[in-house]
């Protein structure tokens, strides 16, 4: 029948028309809004084709940030993407979940009272660092003014290895950054040279639990003890903030006897990244104060918005709520035992990798994954044909993203490669990685002469 014939021709036409030859769809502007709308399928395909060119997140050994969650988490994510964290009046249950997470973390980090704990979710550790730093600065200013002393030259003391967020904090909020330089083979802040940099204008010392550079822990307890002695002799009280971006979710499970948290009275605040070893997709961090006294009330805004009084201490206003929901999911799903199992597995894989590297004459292991599950290693002095940047490039050919970079000032002579072992990086994947590393090194070793040098080796931004 004619009608049938017409329909089938139409169907045929539709099925064979490739999307990109649709009239008007041959050219899509990249840097300005297209003049007309397009079908959602076409837009989807264009965007998917672009993001496909990004690396495979599971092969990304550079990042500390979660790249895998289980199916239930993915479903929960999809079901809660529309929640705005700031609309606490509209989403009271999400707000309640946030409070529960804060109490759970206060308990995990041994706050004097988890019931009376004070804290908030943040966009990530960076926002947490800014908020904690601001609280330190404000408390220092208040104390100085109360004592009728000048409050115009605050400084903050930290190791030369701190993550860039602390440079930002000092720059944005006009606090003098004082970096304790690295020395010898210790790549983080140690108490011995700390006091050369501390004085009555110090708003606080930042101790890092899990250095971005090599995954090592700064000795928070000894740093506090040194500041105790300083206070006893000078009368100057210097509080400590712990940047536990990664370690906040590792140490309580893998090194439970390490004393680094609110058990130390001098530790006034701690921040950590839920989206790193907190095992949640990017977009969530946490910052907690030991008690309400350490978060100056005048930093907290009370917003009368959308129907209720809402206390907020945040740099952002609107922010996704789904990641907070996912954090709660992970807490419930894993519990302490589950977290311990996941993080221990990461550490076992990291230690396996570092042991294998130790047995390879081409490499020197700088950190072996026994603190954070992070392995850093350099090319040994005997190797003359290639360097860490060449190894990093060769590994990319196999899909592995392993950054190469130099250590901070005073140890810039040392260039390393870093592997971050995260949830989902199994022993099997580690074996594949080590096999590809071996292949890369054999290829480089077989060269008839040294690799040509770049004027400026590519740099990695932490
Ligand atoms: C020690 C440390 N502090 C702060 C940050 C910033 O964390 P985020 O990416 O969660 O903002 C990082 C990130 O790697 C880090 O390693």
TrEMBL record:
Q: Which GO terms describe its molecular function?
A: aromatic-L-amino-acid decarboxylase activity; glutamate decarboxylase activity; pyridoxal phosphate binding
Q: Which UniProt keywords apply?
A: Decarboxylase, Lyase, Pyridoxal phosphate
What name has this protein been given in UniProt? Glutamate decarboxylase
Q: Which reaction does it catalyse?
A: L-glutamate + H(+) = 4-aminobutanoate + CO2
The protein's matches in NCBIfam families, at most eight in alphabetical order, are given as: Glu-decarb-GAD
Which cofactor(s) are needed, names only? pyridoxal 5'-phosphate
EC nos: 4.1.1.15
Enzyme class, one word?
lyase
Instruction: State the Gene Ontology BP annotations.
Output: L-glutamate catabolic process
Modified residue annotations for N6-(pyridoxal phosphate)lysine: 276
